[in-house]
TrEMBL record:
Catalytic activity: L-asparagine + H2O = L-aspartate + NH4(+)
Asparaginase/glutaminase C-terminal domain segment(s): 266-375
Name listed for the protein in its UniProt record: asparaginase
Species whose genome carries this gene: Maudiozyma barnettii
Family designation: Belongs to the asparaginase 1 family.
Entry keywords, A to Z: Hydrolase
Active site: 61 (o-isoaspartyl threonine intermediate), 61
EC number of the protein: 3.5.1.1
Superkingdom, taxonomy of origin: Eukaryota
SMART domains from the UniProt entry: Asparaginase
A GO biological process held by the record: L-asparagine catabolic process
Length: 381
């Protein structure tokens, strides 16, 4: 299927077997029917014994193939959701599945337009399904998960993001098990009221807090706030009762169906280092609606760069290079009146999540004070 093509396919039981299926707990094998609009057989919708799950596919390594079974690099996105589902035949015992290919790209190519498409895909599915699964590359999965948590009120419906670290062609590919577990999570009543989740390598995490910390290993995601649960022998064990991220600000976006007409403000990230000057700041300050600095330590930039940041007209968020810790407001630069003006502390947020939060504040036309309030509320910024 070409990139960006949308195909909607429904997996449901067939007419002939429906009587049997009414008496049994679940169909043995999925029957795949293709149609322009999702089709659920009426008997199935009356029976409602299995949860209804929607999968939204975006691509990533989980949908990729390399040229040999030992290769775990230099692979290409090649598989549709349907291909991926064929690797997990037991799934029809767990749920009724419907799926939609929103795009099929490496997550390095996920941009604001695709984010909007994901947003629309979720919004359209929330009322009709018991759970949603999003297949996604791991490189930028944490950003998408953070964006979804910040913009969508999922109510009780779990939204589970899943990827893999090995391509589907590799020995011991992790994709099929990760996808299987993601679907199990989305279908499990214990997952309700937990908002955006990430499933990878047997661990369940809050999408809001997760960060990719290892570029290669199967245990690629880290979450300092702790895992929410895990799988043992494919049983879900949650460590805590349902919980949602503390202080998460929900933005109300008005995204049209045609996402081309929606412009998300441009925010760039500048990486701090010894000897950094204001050269980059000067180059970008008229090109972007906002800037995020990955500062040294807890908000450290050279004095001259701090002075220049206070002088520009756009918001500048002070984030950090360090994986852990936070930027306290006290460390922001201040003018002669002790005012940090357009400079905002990111709190615990890393640069890439700070960027999305600032984009959302700008998209909703928040003032600097409102933006500071949002950062403060979310993560003590
Ligand atoms: N493991 C992965 O999914 C990495 C891949 N480059 C992606 O983000 O699409």
């Amino acid at each position: 299927m070409p990139n960006n093509a949308v195909e909607i396919t429904t997996i449901c039981s067939d007419l002939e077997n429906s009587q049997f299926k009414l008496e049994s707990t679940a169909p043995e094998e999925p029957i795949i029917s293709k149609s322009a609009t999702p089709v659920i057989h009426p008997l199935l919708s009356q029976r409602r014994s299995l949860p209804r799950i929607k999968i939204l596919g975006t691509g990533g390594t989980i949908a990729s193939k390399a040229t040999s079974s030992s290769a775990t690099a230099d692979y290409k996105v090649d598989l549709t959701i349907q291909d991926m589902l064929e690797a997990i035949p037991d799934i029809s015992r767990i749920c009724e599945l419907e799926y939609e290919q929103l795009c099929n790209v490496d997550s390095k190519n996920i941009d604001e337009k695709i984010l909007m498409t994901i947003y629309n895909g979720i919004s359209e599915s929330l009322q009709k399904f018991d759970g949603i699964v999003i297949t996604h590359g791991t490189d930028s999965l944490a950003e998408t998960a953070f964006f979804i948590e910040s913009t969508i009120d999922a109510g009780e419906v779990p939204i589970v993001c899943v990827g893999s670290m090995r391509p589907s062609s590799s020995v011991s590919a992790d994709g099929p098990m990760n996808l299987y577990q993601a679907i199990c999570i989305a279908a499990d009543s214990k997952s309700r009221n937990r908002s955006v989740l990430v499933s990878l390598n047997d661990q369940i995490s809050a999408g809001y807090y997760i960060t990719k910390t290892n570029a290669n290993s199967l245990d690629s995601f880290n979450v300092r706030q702790g895992y929410l649960g895990n799988f043992v022998n494919n049983e879900i064990h949650y460590y805590y009762p349902p919980v949602k991220p503390q202080g998460c600000h929900k933005f109300k976006l008005n995204i049209p169906k045609n996402t081309d007409s929606f412009n998300f403000p441009d925010v760039c990230i500048i990486y701090g280092h010894q000897g950094i000057t204001s050269k980059l700041l000067d180059m970008v300050k008229d090109q972007y609606a906002g800037i995020v600095f990955a500062t040294m330590g807890a908000g450290s930039l050279p004095d001259k760069v701090n002075e220049d940041c206070l002088e520009i007209d756009i918001p500048v968020v002070y984030s950090k290079r360090s994986m852990d810790g936070m930027i306290p407001r006290a460390n922001l630069p201040k003018d002669a009146n002790g005012d940090s003006r357009n400079c905002i502390a990111s709190g615990y947020l890393n640069p890439e999540k700070s960027r999305i939060l600032l984009q959302l504040c700008l998209a909703c036309n928040y003032s600097i004070d409102e933006t500071k309030h949002v950062f403060r509320g979310v993560y003590g910024g």
